[in-house]
Write a structure and sequence with these properties.
single chain; four-stranded antiparallel sheet; 14% helix; mainly beta; 390 residues
Length: 390
């Protein structure tokens, strides 16, 4: 079952940095939301729509629901198999016109002042004159073209055709297949101050600033932007360590008792977003971007959390890579809400390999199972396979 989630208010997706009143004065926001944020919003929405005559706590007390989506201690049979940014033209607002957008692979470098000038990082064996602390089997990354200006990668997203070119060909990516972050959203700083609820007065030293994310479709733009999330139900409640059998989409929606459209709350401050169940064959085809599930390169669509930094606890399911292209780690935490009151506690922070990272292998590997040690059930480590010429 595929949902298109369209925000209707400015959003706050907190970073992993703690923000405590009176101790910090800046709450930053990241984009896009992490798998932790989306799984929490979706599971809460599923529980809310399960039985509208009951409260959220009463619904979570129903074993039939917790078997499907889990509880505070686990995810049950709930699985997120894809998380993608998407857009839809306002003049044609039907499900068939939803276009997926993908993070720019870390192997693609663009000249900041002229994105038509591009370079690509490619692995090569290390020359004898170069000495590193890497093993002899590891390759170094080189640019295939020299850029005259400062390179950039993280300010753009790719269409399906652009991602296909990036992972399966050596062609340059056309500018019409790149969407800048400034086209999708605007960072909007807001000021606030703590209040004393007893006296209804402001608290001294509690002035703070919050960075909100305003999706640009909330203003006068041609496209509506949102997030497409694939929700599946496993046939058995077991850890998603292998390619487990999943129930089909139609039966999934029936089991979860979800209407074709509705509302949910997303991110910090519980901002409103509208969801719609997508049932078009075109959207189904785009979900995989026309890519093979097997190749000698893995591209991360979502962040991955590994036990050994940038590499999993074991390479048993994948051959060990010869090179990796990635930027610095992304810290991902979260908030474990106490459903009985407004309190809760921070989840453990994890240093994750960011989306867009690329792993190079000498032999074919599979992208059919999540490439991560943590969060396989909720969308961490979703990967596409690609090809590079050795």
């Amino acid at each position: 079952m595929r949902l298109f989630i369209e925000p209707t208010e400015p959003l706050l997706f907190r970073t992993a940095r703690p923000f405590d009143a009176g101790e910090n004065n800046l709450a930053e926001s990241i984009f896009p939301p992490t798998p932790e944020t989306l799984q929490g919003a979706i599971r809460a929405a599923l529980a809310t729509h399960w039985n509208t005559a009951k409260t959220l706590q009463e619904n979570f007390a129903d074993p039939a629901l917790t078997d499907l989506i889990g509880d505070r201690n686990g995810y049950g049979r709930f699985r997120l198999t894809s998380i993608t940014l998407a857009r839809r033209h306002k003049a044609q607002p039907d499900a068939a016109n939803i276009e997926y957008l993908y993070p720019m692979p870390s192997t693609i470098l663009l000249q900041e002042d002229n994105v038509e000038r591009q370079a690509r990082l490619k692995p090569r064996p290390r020359p004898p004159a170069i000495h590193t602390n890497l093993s002899d089997e590891k390759y170094l990354l080189y640019q295939n073209h020299e850029l005259k200006g400062k390179p950039t990668t993280r300010k753009y997203w790719l269409t399906r055709r652009g991602l296909w070119k990036a992972l399966l060909t050596e062609e340059d990516i056309a500018t019409e297949d790149m969407v800048s972050a400034s086209t999708i959203y605007t960072a909007e700083p807001r000021l606030g101050i703590g209040m004393n609820n007893a006296t209804k007065t402001t608290k001294e030293g509690f002035l703070y600033q919050v960075h909100m994310i305003r999706m640009n479709h909330l203003m006068d733009h041609d496209y509506t932007y949102g997030f497409v999330v694939d929700i599946r139900i496993a046939q058995k409640a077991s850890a998603a360590t292998t390619q487990e059998p999943l129930i089909d989409d139609t039966q999934t929606q029936e089991m979860l008792r979800l209407d074709n459209d509705g509302w949910l709350t997303l991110g910090g401050e519980r901002r409103a977003a509208r969801f719609e169940v997508i049932k078009s064959p075109e959207a189904e085809e785009q979900a995989g971007a026309g890519l093979s599930a097997k190749g000698n390169m893995l591209y991360l669509l979502t962040p991955a959390a590994f036990d050994r930094g940038w590499q999993p606890a074991s390479w048993e399911k994948w051959a060990e890579p010869v090179a990796v292209a990635m930027e610095r780690y992304q810290s991902i935490g979260g908030w474990l809400l106490n459903p009985e009151n407004a309190g809760g506690r921070n989840k453990p922070q994890r240093r994750c390999v960011p989306a867009g990272s690329v792993y190079f292998f000498k032999e074919p590997v599979t992208a059919s199972i999540p490439f991560t040690d943590y969060g396989k059930e909720i969308g961490y480590g979703i990967a596409f396979a690609g090809e590079w010429k050795q």
